[in-house]
Write a structure and sequence with these properties.
377 residues; alpha/beta; Purple Acid Phosphatase, chain A, domain 2; six-stranded mixed sheet; 10 helices; 32% helix; elongated
């Protein structure tokens, strides 16, 4: 029974400028480790081949070191690999692929599908029908010629393409390269392995997106998997299983805080995250000064525990309670300053002065925080 691993959208060479240098480097390294994990999976599950449905590289101008490291990372699986150019690494006349060939970086067991046609793998009983992108965007369906490509009757017909299945995906995916939703049926394919959608997604029983093996953005779309596909014989229904390969989990939360229990629930959720987490928070609503200090301390702990934590607090308004003011012991002039900041924040909630007043209140509260309270914590 032929068995192969379907993966795509490695995006090697991607950088993470929004993160710190340390975090960005760790996220880059995780992508190489993902290739090593999927190679180990292919070996463990005795796969006959690994099919990569486009966007191995994030851009044409990646470094020579990146090219060499990518192909080195495939060494854990000795069987055939078939790599398809996608919209980020299209098979131009001069491309990342031609550079990889000149470098001598491509192992003998790696087949580069730089031209449309059939790549036969007779020992594995698989014929790969490839539709490489030769430019970043196309407006015709490059899988249409699959119908006219002949393959041996005893070999599986496996399509390999990169683009957007028409009418079924969101409008904001990476490329507009169209693919007919019934291509597997019209081309008599046993399976159509797709890339471009970065999450694992079934289109029909013979057509799947594998998604990226390591998440690289804040989307809840089942990223971080590869697919292992078994097909008993030509014409049989594929048996598809998902296997997790992700090192990091990406979480993007948008929260509104109104009462103290909202903050408590948020901090409890943060505390339950696995250590390999990338968290992006945007908070709105109101907080007491005590709640603001509690949030600041919890975020400081989280930043040291997780891979990355960012928090946008610009939508929060600080509303000191009488207890907050009493605890600060802000008498006389300081009390007047606190009151003035409260009034500025409330009067100009949507203006330029509101964030400044809010930040000033938080800083003043931290500076005036009683020493015995700091020791108690």
């Amino acid at each position: 029974m032929p068995k192969f691993l379907h993966t795509a959208d490695w995006q090697m060479g991607r950088t993470y400028s929004r993160f710190s240098a340390e975090d960005g480097a760790a996220l880059v390294e995780a992508r190489y480790k993902a290739i090593e994990r999927l190679a180990a999976l292919a070996t463990e599950h005795q796969c006959d081949a690994v099919l990569v449905a486009g966007d191995v590289f994030d851009a044409q101008a990646v470094s020579d070191r990146t090219i060499r490291r990518v192909f080195n990372a495939t060494s854990g699986f000795a069987g055939p690999w078939v790599m398809l150019p996608g919209n980020h690494d299209a098979a131009l006349s001069e491309s990342v692929w031609t550079r990889a060939q000149r470098l001598g970086a491509v192992p003998q067991n790696v087949h580069l599908a730089l031209e449309p046609g059939v790549i036969p793998l007779p020992e594995q009983g698989i014929a790969v029908l490839s539709a490489p992108l030769t430019q970043r965007h196309t407006y015709g369906d490059l899988t249409q010629p699959f119908s006219s490509l002949d393959t041996a009757p005893d070999m599986l017909r496996i399509g390999l393409a990169h683009g957007s299945v028409q009418g079924l995906l969101a409008d904001d995916i990476d490329s507009t390269n169209p693919i007919a939703p019934d291509r597997a049926a019209t081309a008599n394919l046993d399976y159509l392995a797709l890339g471009d959608w970065h999450g694992a997604k079934q289109i029909n029983e013979r057509t799947w997106y594998s998604g990226t093996p390591e998440p690289e953005r804040f989307r809840n779309n089942d990223a971080g998997y590869v697919l292992i596909v078994e097909i008993e014989e030509p014409g049989a229904t594929p048996q598809v299983s998902r296997h997790e390969t992700a090192r990091y989990q990406w979480h993007q939360w948008r929260e509104t805080l109104s009462v103290p229990s909202d903050l408590d629930e948020l901090l409890a959720r943060i505390g339950q995250l696995p250590e390999a987490s990338v968290l992006d928070l945007k908070l709105n609503g109101t907080l007491t000064l005590a709640g603001d200090q509690k949030l600041t301390e919890a975020l400081s702990i989280a930043e040291a525990r997780y891979r990355s934590v960012t928090c946008d607090r610009s939508g929060l308004q600080l509303e000191p309670t009488e207890e907050d003011i009493a605890e600060l012991q802000a008498d006389g002039y300081l009390g007047e300053v606190v009151q003035e900041l409260r009034e500025i924040q409330q009067a100009t909630e949507t203006g330029e002065d509101a964030p400044v007043a809010r930040e000033a209140l938080g800083i003043l509260a931290r500076l005036l925080k009683p020493k015995d309270a700091e020791v108690a914590q």
